[in-house]
Amino acid sequence: MTDPRSGSSADREALPVELVDESGRSAGTLSVSLAHQPPGRLHRAFSVLLFDRAGRVLIQQRAAVKTRFPLQWANTCCGHPAPGQPVLEAGRVRLGEELGLTAELREAGTFTYRAGDPGTGRVEYEYDHVLVGTHTGPDPVPDPDEVAAFAWTDPAELAEAVRATPEQYTPWLAEVLDIAVRAYRTAGSAAH
């Protein structure tokens, strides 16, 4: 049987997301498509950011067919866990689907944001779990339906680029980067 989460972008729009309250407590379900219609419904999401051994982060340019913020640069990957699905599990699955990668992930923090996409009219209103990991394996093998391009970049240079040209980046990237870098530095200093 085929996993319904590995289908096309149109198929993914019909999948359920978990609606949540401002504290992240479950409050029902709705399809991806309906949750992103204006004004947006608060739902659970995750954003993965991988670091390499040199401390660079892996970012991706979202594919042109994405229904929200196409062709903008974002964190390594992101998505929505199925209702009741553990966030770390969902992050690992999505990392494999979008970039053909595996990594041990841990949660670095959460934040809530709302952002409208003027190009598509869709709205992101998400309770976002930031997941971090270290990549030590082979190069990414991106799914072209998900990822237009990828790059490894210095986190400080990326933060400056996001401030200088925000229209090139997804509206959630700055906060994901901030939370992930703080967690990465804390874990690094604890290891020494």
TrEMBL record:
Kindly state which keywords UniProt assigns to this record, in alphabetical order. Cytoplasm, Isomerase, Isoprene biosynthesis, Magnesium, Manganese, Metal-binding
Subcellular location, principal: cytoplasm
Q: Which reaction does it catalyse?
A: isopentenyl diphosphate = dimethylallyl diphosphate
One Pfam family matching this protein: NUDIX
Organism in which the protein naturally occurs: Nocardia thailandica
Q: Which InterPro entries is this protein grouped with?
A: Idi_bact, IsopentenylPP_isomerase_typ1, NUDIX_hydrolase-like_dom_sf, NUDIX_hydrolase_dom
- Protein name, please? Isopentenyl-diphosphate Delta-isomerase
Keyword Manganese tagged: yes
What EC number(s) are associated with this protein in UniProt?
5.3.3.2
Q: What does this protein do?
A: Catalyzes the 1,3-allylic rearrangement of the homoallylic substrate isopentenyl (IPP) to its highly electrophilic allylic isomer, dimethylallyl diphosphate (DMAPP).
Catalytic residues in the record: C78, E126
Residues the record lists as binding Mn(2+): H36, H43, H80, E124, E126
Positions contributing to Mg(2+) binding:
E98
Q: Required cofactors, per record?
A: Mg(2+); Mn(2+)
Protein location? Cytoplasm
